[in-house]
Amino acid sequence: MQYSFASRTHSLLTSPLRSVQKLAKRDSLISLAEELPAEELFPVSALAEAAGSVLSADPRSLQYGEAEGYGPLRQWLSESWSRRKGLHMEPDRILLTTGTQQAMDLLVRSCTNPEDTVLVENPTSPGLLQVLRLHGVRMIPVRSDHDGVLPEQLAELLLKHQPKLFFAAPNFNNPTGALWSLERRLEVLKVIAGTSLLVVEDDSLGELCFPGSPAAQPLPPLAALEERQGEQVLYVGSFSKTVAPALRTGWAAGPSEVISMMTAVKLMADWQSSMLIHRMLHHLLLSRHFHLEEHLSALNREYVTRLKLMDQLLRRSAWSGASYELPKGGMFLWVRLPGGLSGDVLLKAAALKGVSFLPGSMCSPDGENHDYIRLNFTHPGRDELMLGMNLISEALREFTARS
Amino acid sequence: MQYSFASRTHSLLTSPLRSVQKLAKRDSLISLAEELPAEELFPVSALAEAAGSVLSADPRSLQYGEAEGYGPLRQWLSESWSRRKGLHMEPDRILLTTGTQQAMDLLVRSCTNPEDTVLVENPTSPGLLQVLRLHGVRMIPVRSDHDGVLPEQLAELLLKHQPKLFFAAPNFNNPTGALWSLERRLEVLKVIAGTSLLVVEDDSLGELCFPGSPAAQPLPPLAALEERQGEQVLYVGSFSKTVAPALRTGWAAGPSEVISMMTAVKLMADWQSSMLIHRMLHHLLLSRHFHLEEHLSALNREYVTRLKLMDQLLRRSAWSGASYELPKGGMFLWVRLPGGLSGDVLLKAAALKGVSFLPGSMCSPDGENHDYIRLNFTHPGRDELMLGMNLISEALREFTARS
To answer: Which residues are the signal sequence here (chains A, B) (predicted)?
Structure first.
């Protein structure tokens, strides 16, 4: 039998992202392509304790809950943001999602029609690009310099396209690791003030802020800097990178009307997230067996060590002519390959040797950045990282030797 | 600021289902409106044991997994269906979702364009109707008699509309509780054979099959009866009603091409479900502390007791003129109100007294069935059920006394 599919789904099956993901699943392969945290640091026993406590306390932990998510966990987020980030968001302006990816999908389903125009910080995360493509939304890339997106270009694009949405990640962009300066954040907010633009701020990596850098304290998110908080910025993030991905818990927080519509779409999309997980996570966050801030410090100390190792390996001769900026946080190193070599071409050679990474073209609305690659340094342990980088170096050498 | 929303989202916010759901959340209210299992019977301690074991065995339980879901759990489903239902479906034809609702949403996103025509067994579940409405799909209702949907009408509609999809729930339809006869199942399969129709079989309630009825063993699902299994039937269901809703675990299983496309859409929609939950559930299903079939027997014994109580209460004078058929399984009683009274009107009066139910109009693509109501008998305990039914009776008496 022939099965017929929705017209825009074509882009999903032919997506190169999908082949990289498949590649990365092969057991023999070392993956520097994925977005995985270090599993050695998961709070395993504290979560086991949380599961036991929550289940024995109340069988309703296993029942259906509310579409917007477990109230006390939203309350915890509200208080934590207020204390740690200067972001004041009432719990009823917070929707718990199963992660940043779902938050983006719900938002785009709530707010856009096909052919609508949106602005996208360029480069950006491949997951977001997938969502926008499936919805048939027109993406306009916004350029950046060292301090963040360019306010003049943003102003120009606003005038020209009157876009509904602008997707940005000021704290450790995926893939570049870029951190917008405080001044730039304020300038951007000034540019959008009075327009009907909604900024979607992805802060998924914002807590991965490395010690020893000038920005050892995270900068306030855009959402905390706007004059009337919760008006023009939707604040999106998750516990996937800070506690554990399998908790499938993230959020969107912002304008009540938008949150309310996203909640209605969530009801339809998956009814609600897991009450059991929400209660476990809430229990964990209040538990004396776990301190989020200490946990984050340990995580960041480990990640910066892995980043330094990767930096050392990139100084070897195979990489001469490559360029990159050392990020102050996040999970990725964004490397420009020498001599205009294409990341897609290098990936094919590297995969044959048993290692993968993300080619830069997958992080761009229009397939630009083809001479960049994204390397993940948070998941592979020391040995794996060294072996993986050696294999990429080998592949690289084959190309540079030729030219 | 004015926020602008996607054009079809309008239907979500104005949905009467939403107001019933809001109503049902008020603590003072007894709800016979929802689709909740009895929480007294959740396998709480076996799940706590599972959580502890899984977490201590492998920290990767907290890591990202695969979009299609945890392999051993798909393997378990495959074997269990094969043994218990005569349904032979390889694990790679199974996608784990967060429930039936997500399975329906992913399917509709994968297979339909706006304005496409689909057939829907009438009445049907309000959750499915929401999905189809948001996607802008044209729904054609298919009528039923005591044995299931009418094959002649189905044949006629197939010819006339050449629909892509047909949504049906042969085992204990939500809301009616109807069970298609074996003969009717075979007739329906004959009608669709050779066409390009995909039947989406919702078997969410199939295991809630009550003792003492001729159908004390569930009838084989359509998916098990088609000549080449996995060709024209997509088999959808979940653990929400059999183990616990907060596990957020369901499935879609069927044609590889369809499963593969739904998996790609899931990657984009929420990346993947929770590996932790999948491993916990798999551990539970293999555990000596839990036997699924015994658990289902206990559940069904309890539910049939509650159903009998509801049946007794419906025989009181307030309900004279109402009609219903006692279901052989499922979670709902579908009652036709006396004298053409509207379920929506009765709900308003009942809600003022502190009780809610689902008006029939919400279960129909075109708002038909307005003189029906859907009563849930699985969640409320004995006292709550009696009080709730008394309050509805009171409201009902006010209308029948007038006429």
So the answer is: none
